[in-house]
Amino acid sequence: MNICPNCKSNNVALYILISRWRINKCSDCELVYTLIEDNIKNINNTVYNTEYIRGYRSREIELRVRFREYLHVIEKYQRGGKLLDIGCGMGYFIAIAEQSSNYIWKTTGVELNTQLIKAANKLVRKRIVNGSLSRLPFKSNVFDCVTCFDVLEHDQYLQKNLSEVKRVLKKGGILVVQAPNYVSLMAFLTGKKWDWWALPDHVLHMSFAFLDSFLLKNNFEILQKFTYERSKDFLLNIKGTLGKSYIQKIIFYSSVPVLFLFERISWLFNLGALSFVIARKKV
To answer: What digits encode the pLDDT tens for the residues 86-111?
Structure first.
């Protein structure tokens, strides 16, 4: 694709080549995107299979802790109401919103993968429906809060998808987005081995600045924004880029305190590997 999927500019060039995957960058809007072949466009229906579900369940405690933290941040701006979690996976976040909040949330989840829907509905009593970003099966102006945790990067039609999210969100409603930040210290240090290139699953690669600007251009008011990553992910990804020799292991483990310090400093400059933005729909 020699045209940017976001702004339709043809002012694009190769940003990085990883294995057989070509990743281009638009010089006009700064979006980075993977060139996708027709035969892998439905990869989300196959990647998130039974093995993925087992791995996800093994992280349930960790994920529930993380989702409680997300909910605490969200409730600074929206204390209960109708909540839609797009790409809800196993339904852990909406379960947390119902069970761990001091406010009343009426929750719904949307998931593309049918195996995940089946697994999630056992947890949250059949409140997960089949759908996608491009076609949400709801009326307009329904939800007080829409969450998109690690979702927007999976489909190239970013503008169309955001318009659909905006359609179901009430005026004054809250949109919460998390997405990998390719302009991050973690990506810089690991290069082509950065875990969250996640090819070919991740089609779009957005910087923190791009995501901020994109939401502003679509008439959202930014309420809070920051970058971060789990230090465990940061260190493991760096460790994975090194060889397995005894000397390399010594170098890595002796560098951990310095790496940890640089990681925390990088967050001050929005160079964490995950962008997190809370925005309010204005119109």
So the answer is: 999 889 999 999 988 889 999 999 99
